[in-house]
Amino acid sequence: MDFFPENITGHYAAEKKAIMSLCNNRKGYCIADLARHLDASIPKVTRIVSEMLADGYLVELGKIGSSGGRRASLFGLNPNAGCFVGVHVGHEGLTVAVTDFPGNVLSVVESIPFHLESTESSVHQMCEKVRTCLKNMPVDSERIAAYGVDLTGRVNHQTGYSYSYFISEEKPLRMLLEQEFGRAVVVENDSRAMAWGEYVCGVAGDEGTILFLNVGWGLGMGMVLDGKLFYGKSGFSGEFGHFPLLNNDQYCRCGKVGCLETGASGLALHRLVTEKLAQGRTSVLSPAFKKGEDITLDNILDAIKKEDVLAIECIEEVGATLGRALAGLINIFNPDLVVIGGRLSVTEHYLLPPLKSAVNKLSLNIVNNDTHIKVSQLGRTAGAIGSSLLAKGLLLGNIEQ
Question: How many angstroms separate the Cα of 366 from the Cα of each of 15, 252, 334, 363?
């Protein structure tokens, strides 16, 4: 069969998508349970399941134990029904992930060198990179059902526009990507994709409400509230980094002054370290700085790994600032879980203690008692994995375009 979302149409299309969505959330259902969830008769659901088995969307997983009589069959998503590709577009390059129909991660390739620009030719080059990568992965390109692509900045997943990589009014990024890949494409903000990846496949477990803080060069947030990604009215929720919190007279990339990102991000860490180096502070980075060499964020993260006192001092300052803002979020959302992800999450042993100290000091005890703070389990792969899972959401009708 052809693995396009629009092919799940016709008689019982809504019920078939509903069954796939249900099976997406747990390993298997029997006919009686499916009938109860769909509020449909057992004969009707039996016919639908039979069609889905014939079409290859479902497989029989086994039998339910019973004290007597015939044992009921369990049905679940067929791993061979198709696969989904997620592409994370980061400052450090591309990450490509492939998941199967039930959502198992089949393969991930990180740090593919590429810098995306706001041109059609650059989008074409990126797609060529992805296609080349997929040729070396255990995936049949003919069985790819949909793609997900996540990028930094403001993204409207419904219109397909990225306002950080804006091509033209007539050509949203999603349109170009669908022309390139020949499949349906979901375009998403990187922080939301990371949040969804972590929620489904990472550290979230059974938690229903999580806040994912993407602490990279910038600062973003993805929110899963009661099991669903939260977008806001215009699809631009999560601009946590532009919360006007600080009185530091630092101009943000958005043009405003005092945004949280100017004190709690990779950009802020870089500024703090280079300012202190300019003041003559000693560091393993000092020789390169005195020679006029560029000090990159990776250099600073490597210095922290080497237990450089100056770099650790700066990441602790970033952690304290981030914790102060997080205390406010916890007071507002009372989440089950806060996940710290992004490039700076690798500094967890130095970032988290001042962050948690600020949260304990500034948030309400009655609110934060039930909130856990953890580091991302998926790390740099969270965005690509999350994007592939969102691509499946498009196929199942959980994402509207």
Answer: 43, 34, 10, 9
pLDDT of residue 316: 97
**The pTM is what?**
0.89
Phi, psi of 209 (to 5 degrees): -130, 115
What is the spatial distance between Cα 177 and Cα 179, in angstroms, rounded to a whole number? 5
| Residue 28 structural domain | 5-79
Are residues 293 and 267 located together in one domain of the fold? yes
Order across the sheet with 228-229: list the strands.
228-229, 219-225, 210-215, 337-341, 372-375
How far apart are the C-alpha atoms of 324 and 212, rounded to whole Å? Answer: 16
What residues have CB less than 8 Å from 79, skipping those under 6 apart? 59, 100, 101, 102, 104
Residues 115 and 64 in one domain: no
Task: Determine the Cα angle at 197 with ends 122 and 13, to 5°.
Answer: 90
Tens of pLDDT along 46-73? 999 999 898 888 999 888 765 555 778 8
Closest CA to 150 of 107, 102, 198: 198
3-state helix, strand, coil split of the chain in percent (to 5) is 45, 20, 35
Tell me the C-alpha distance between 377 and 341, whole Å: 8
Grouping H, G, I as helix, E, B as strand and the rest as coil, residue 66 is coil
What is the length of the chain? 401
Residue whose entry in the numeric block shows the structure tokens 């008689």: 11
Instruction: Say if residue 184 is in the same domain as residue 221.
Output: no
Domain count, the chain: 3
CA 105 to chain centre: 14
| Token pair for 97 | 């992930």
What pairs with residue 259 in β-bridges? 244
Is residue 192 situated within a structural domain? yes
User: What is the chain's mean pLDDT, rounded?
Assistant: 89
**Which residue, among 393, 335, 384, 385, has the nearest Cα to 363 in the 3D structure?**
335
* Bridge partners, residue 147, by sequence: 85, 185
